[in-house]
Design brief:
heterodimer, A: about 425 residues, Rossmann fold, 4 domains, 6-stranded mixed beta sheet, 4-stranded antiparallel beta sheet, B: about 400 residues, mainly alpha, 2 strands, about 0% strand, disordered N terminus, disordered C terminus
C-alpha cells in the first residue's frame, strides 16, 4: 500500500508534468517525471513478512506484581532480505514494560535472526495472552507499507498476590479450630502406614508391597491411615459491586488476595480448602488439599471478574449441604447491596460453622475514586458499622478491612469482635 | 526453556574498548550516518551549483543585483567584492558566498546542539550586535554631540548619515542570505537534524524553479520586457540527444542537467530525512535497548541498506528518467533498425514528437510499462536470488568479536 509520502510524490509528479506541459517548461516536466520514476523504481522491491517467530517466557504462571521476561526470536526464512521491517509484539494493555522494548526496526538478511528481549510487569491478576506479532514492512524511502501479523500467542496466568499470614492472627476463640492434618486410626488417603491387605483389582500399583509379595507369593498392598484435615470454605463475593474503587484497589482485588493468601496458608498446613465464587452464578471448587488444589484455586481466582448480583443466602442455601460439619467458613465480601447477608451468616452460625466475615470497606474504596461529601461519608460509614455489628451479633467474627490496611493487620481485628 | 530467558545485560568487555551503543552521541559519529550526511551535503551543493549554473549565473545572480544597487546609490556596498564575488565570471561568483553559506549553516547546526541557555545567550548576543551595528554609531555621535554642546536636540543630517552604512550592510547580507537560503538551511537541516530546515531548503528551491518557470513562460516573459529578457529560459523543443546508454543517445546535455537537478533534490531529501528518521528511532529507544547488541546490529543493517538504496534506487531513478525521455527515439531506432522502413524516419521528423508533450507522453508510457512489468517480472525473486547468494556467508556469524565491537 502506498504511504502518504508516495501518494504526494506521485500526485506532485503528475501535477508538475501537467503544469510543465501547459507552460512548456522542461524543468517542471523532468522534475515531475523523475518523481514518477522514483515511485515506479521503488515499487519493484518491497519488504516482506515471511519470518518465523518464536516467543519464550520466563514463566507460564506468575503472581501479581511479578516480572515476566519475554524473548522474541525473529528469523527470516525467505531467500531475500526483509527490507525495513517493524516488529511489534502485542502485549495486554494491563501489563507494563519495565525494561527493554517490545518492538524493533530491523532488516534481516536471508536466514538471519534477531532477538527482542523485554521485561513486563504484571500488576493485575487474570488470564492473558501475549501476541500476535504485528509486522510492518516498509521500503527504505517509506513509499510503500504493508501491515501483517504472525498469529503467535503465548498464554499466561497471573495469580493473585500471596500475602504472609502469621499463625498467631489465625487463632480462633474456639480452641484447635485450625489444627492442620492429624492422622486417624482408620484406613484411607493419607501418608502414614496402617496395615497390609490383599490386592484387589483397581488398586494402584504404587501401593503394592513388593517385599510382602516376595515373602508370601501373593500380591499385597499397603494401606495408609486417613489424614483428618480441617475443611475450610472460602466464599468470595465477585458481584458487580465489588469493582468499586480503582483498578488496582477494589474489594474484589483485595478479596482475591485474601482468598489466595488464606488458601495458601491452610493448604501449607495440609488442610483442605474449598472455594465458592459468586457473581451472576456460583462457581464451586470442592475441598481438597495439595499443590494441585492450590493451583486450581489460584487459577480460579485469577479469572474472577466482577459481574452479577447473586445474594449470599442463595450461595449458602445451595452449598450448606456440602459443608462439613463445624468447618470454618470465610466470607469475603463488602456486604454492600445484599440484604441476605445477616440471614445467611445466622444460618451458617446456627449450623455450627465458625464464620469469619472479611469485609473490604467499599465506602472507603469509593472515596478513592470519587469525592464523597463528609456528611454522606459519615452516614455511609455509620450504616456500614451497623451492618457489621449486626453480623457480629449473629455470632460471626467480623473484620472491617480498610483499603490501606495489610491483610495480616486486618486479620488481627478478629479478636476485636 | 523458561530458565533461558534473562535480563538484558550490557556487553561487558575488559580493557579500554567500549561496546557500541545507540546513544546519539555515539551514533552521530557512526560511519553510515556520517556518510549519509556527507552524501546529502554533496547532493545539496551540487544541486545548488546546477540550479545556479542553469538559471541564475549571468542573468539574475546576486552580483548583478549588487551592481544595480551600487548604481542606484552611486556608492559601493559595504561588503567587499572578494566576498560577494563581484568582478568574477560565471560560477566563481558563488564560490565565496557558498562557503559562507555552508559555514553559517554549520554554525547554526552547531548552535542547535547547545543547551537552551547557551542558545538563548547567542541569540541575545546576535540581536544586541545587530542593534549596535544598526544604531550604535548614530547614538554614540548623537549623544556625544548633545553632551558636548549641552543641547537637547534631534540627530542632525550628518549623524543620520551614519545609518546608511549599517543599513546597506544589512541589506547586502539579507540579499546574500536569500540567494544562499537553500545552502544555509540545507546545511543546518542535515547537520543540525532539522526537518523544518530541510523542508525550507527544498521548498525554496522548488519555489524558485516554479516562479522561474512561470516568469519564463513566453506570454509573461514578453510582458516583462527587458527584465524578462535577462531570464535564462530553456528551450521547449529538445535538440538531438548526445548523452545515452549502450550506444543509444537518449537525452540532450540540457535535459541531463535538469534530470541531475531533480535526482539531486531527491538524494538530498532522502539522505537527510533518512538520517533524522533513524536517529529519532534510536533516540526513542529505552536505555536498555540502546545498549543491546541486537538493536545495534539491526541499526547497522538498516543504515547500510539505506546507504545502498540511496545510491542504487536514486541512480536507477535518474536512468529511468533518461530512458523515459529518450523512449520515443529508442522505439523509432528499434523499428527503423528491425524493419528498415521509412516510416520510422518520417515519424521521427514529426514535430509532435519533438515538442514537449510528445516527449512526456512517450516518457509516461515507458514508466507505465515499467510499473506494469512489476507484475510480470519477478523482481523480488531475482533480487532474493542475488541477495541469498551474496548473504549466505554473512548471515551465519551472530556474535561479534572484540575488534568488531
Amino acid at each position: 500500500m502506498w504511504t502518504r509520502k508516495a501518494a504526494f510524490t506521485f500526485t506532485g509528479g503528475i501535477a508538475l508534468v501537467l503544469i510543465g506541459m501547459m507552460i512548456s517548461n522542461q524543468q517542471m516536466m523532468i522534475l515531475g517525471l523523475s518523481l514518477v520514476a522514483f515511485i515506479v523504481v521503488n515499487s519493484w522491491i518491497a519488504g516482506h513478512g515471511d519470518v518465523e517467530v518464536q516467543r519464550t517466557l520466563s514463566a507460564d504462571n506468575l503472581y501479581k506484581g511479578d516480572d515476566l521476561y519475554v524473548e522474541l526470536l525473529v528469523t527470516n526464512r525467505s531467500n531475500r532480505k526483509t527490507q525495513m521491517l517493524d516488529i511489534y509484539d502485542n502485549i495486554p494493555h494491563e501489563m507494563k514494560l519495565r525494561s527493554g522494548l517490545n518492538q524493533m526496526q530491523l532488516n534481516l538478511k536471508p536466514g538471519e535472526s534477531a532477538r527482542i528481549r523485554y521485561v513486563l510487569r504484571c500488576p493485575l491478576r487474570g488470564h492473558y495472552s501475549i501476541g500476535p506479532v504485528s509486522l510492518r514492512a516498509r521500503n527504505t524511502f517509506n513509499l510503500g507499507v504493508e501491515d501483517m501479523y504472525v498469529d503467535h500467542h503465548s498464554d499466561i496466568v497471573i495469580f493473585p498476590q500471596i500475602k504472609d499470614i502469621e499463625e498467631a492472627f489465625m487463632r480462633s476463640r474456639t480452641p484447635k479450630m485450625y489444627t492442620g492434618a492429624t492422622t486417624l486410626r482408620t484406613p484411607g488417603q493419607g501418608s502414614e502406614f496402617y496395615s497390609l491387605r490383599e490386592y484387589v483389582p483397581g488398586d494402584p500399583f504404587k501401593n503394592i508391597n513388593w517385599k510382602a509379595f516376595a515373602r508370601t507369593g501373593e500380591l499385597m498392598v499397603n494401606e495408609k491411615c486417613r489424614d483428618a484435615v480441617t475443611d475450610l470454605y472460602l466464599l468470595l463475593d465477585s458481584r458487580d459491586l465489588a469493582r468499586i474503587g480503582t483498578v488496582l484497589k477494589n474489594p474484589l482485588e483485595m478479596g482475591t488476595v485474601s482468598a489466595a493468601s488464606l488458601a495458601a496458608f491452610f493448604l501449607k498446613r495440609r488442610d483442605s480448602v474449598a472455594l465458592a465464587i459468586y457473581d451472576e452464578k456460583l462457581s464451586y471448587l470442592p475441598p481438597d488439599t495439595g499443590d494441585k488444589q492450590y493451583f486450581k484455586l489460584l487459577s480460579a481466582l485469577a479469572g474472577v471478574t466482577p459481574k452479577g448480583t447473586m445474594p449470599l443466602q442463595a450461595v449458602t442455601n445451595s452449598l450448606s449441604g456440602r459443608f462439613s460439619r463445624g468447618s470454618p467458613v470465610f466470607i469475603i465480601s463488602s456486604c454492600e447491596g445484599d440484604g441476605t447477608v445477616p440471614a445467611a451468616v445466622r444460618d451458617l452460625v446456627g449450623r455450627g460453622h465458625e464464620v469469619t466475615v472479611l469485609s473490604p470497606s467499599s465506602v472507603d474504596f469509593e472515596r478513592l475514586v470519587s469525592r464523597i461529601p463528609r456528611m454522606s461519608y459519615e452516614v455511609l460509614k455509620l450504616e456500614r458499622q451497623n451492618r457489621l455489628t449486626t453480623l457480629a451479633g449473629s455470632g460471626a467474627q467480623v473484620i472491617d478491612w480498610m483499603p490501606d490496611m495489610d491483610l495480616s493487620q486486618a486479620l488481627m481485628q478478629v479478636r476485636g469482635y | 526453556m523458561a530458565g533461558e530467558v534473562g535480563l538484558q545485560s550490557d556487553v561487558l568487555l575488559e580493557g579500554t574498548a567500549r561496546p557500541r551503543t545507540l546513544h546519539l552521541k555515539n551514533l552521530r559519529r557512526q560511519w553510515q550516518i556520517l556518510s549519509l550526511q556527507i552524501v546529502a551535503t554533496v547532493a545539496l551543493i551540487t544541486m545548488y551549483v546546477q540550479v545556479v549554473q542553469t538559471y541564475v549565473v549571468g542573468s539574475i545572480d546576486h552580483t548583478i543585483l549588487f551592481d544595480s544597487i551600487e548604481l542606484l546609490i552611486s556608492d559601493q556596498l559595504p561588503l567587499g567584492d572578494w566576498l560577494t564575488g563581484e568582478g568574477r565570471d560565471g560560477l566563481s561568483r558563488f564560490f565565496v558566498p557558498m562557503v559562507m553559506g555552508l559555514s553559517l549553516g554549520g554554525a547554526m547546526a552547531f548552535i542547535a546542539f547547545q543547551s537552551p541557555k547557551v542558545q538563548q545567550r547567542i541569540k541575545l548576543g546576535f540581536i544586541i550586535g545587530l542593534i549596535v551595528l544598526l544604531v550604535g554609531r548614530l547614538l554614540l555621535s548623537w549623544f556625544a554631540g548633545m553632551l558636548f554642546e549641552f543641547d537637547l536636540r534631534l540627530p542632525d543630517e550628518s549623524e543620520l548619515e551614519t545609518l546608511q552604512w549599517p543599513l546597506l550592510m544589512i541589506l547586502s547580507l539579507i540579499i546574500l542570505f536569500i540567494y544562499l537560503l537553500p545552502v544555509i538551511m540545507g546545511t543546518r537541516g542535515i547537520w543540525g537534524l532539522s526537518r523544518r530546515s530541510i523542508g525550507w531548503a527544498i521548498g525554496f528551491t522548488l519555489l524558485f524553479l516554479g516562479v522561474h518557470a512561470i516568469l519564463t513562460f513566453p506570454l509573461i516573459k514578453g510582458q516583462l520586457g527587458s527584465y524578462g529578457g535577462a531570464l535564462a529560459s530553456l528551450e521547449s523543443q529538445s535538440s538531438d540527444p548526445t548523452i545515452g546508454l549502450f550506444g543509444l543517445n537518449l537525452v540532450t546535455k540540457e535535459q541531463f542537467d535538469l534530470i541531475l537537478i531533480a535526482v539531486l533534490i531527491m538524494v538530498f531529501q532522502e539522505a537527510s530525512y533518512g538520517v533524522i528518521r533513524n536517529l529519532e528511532y534510536a533516540f526513542r529507544l529505552p536505555e536498555s535497548c540502546k545498549r543491546d547488541p541486537e538493536y545495534v546490529r539491526q541499526m547497522d543493517n538498516v543504515l547500510n541498506t539505506h546507504l545502498r538504496h540511496t545510491f542504487f534506487f536514486l541512480g536507477l531513478t535518474g536512468l529511468a528518467t533518461m530512458v523515459a525521455l529518450g523512449f520515443h527515439k529508442v522505439l523509432l531506432t528499434i523499428v527503423s533498425d528491425t524493419t528498415g522502413s521509412q516510416w520510422a524516419g518520417q515519424v521521427s521528423e514529426s514535430i509532435e514528437l519533438t515538442l514537449t508533450y510528445g516527449l512526456v507522453i512517450s516518457a509516461l508510457l515507458f514508466l507505465s510499462i515499467m510499473a506494469v512489468l512489476r507484475f510480470f517480472i519477478p523482481w523480488q525473486r531475482v533480487i532474493g536470488l542475488i541477495q541469498s547468494r551474496g548473504m549466505k556467508e554473512d548471515a551465519k556469524p551472530a556474535s561479534k568479536d572484540f575488534t568488531q565491537l
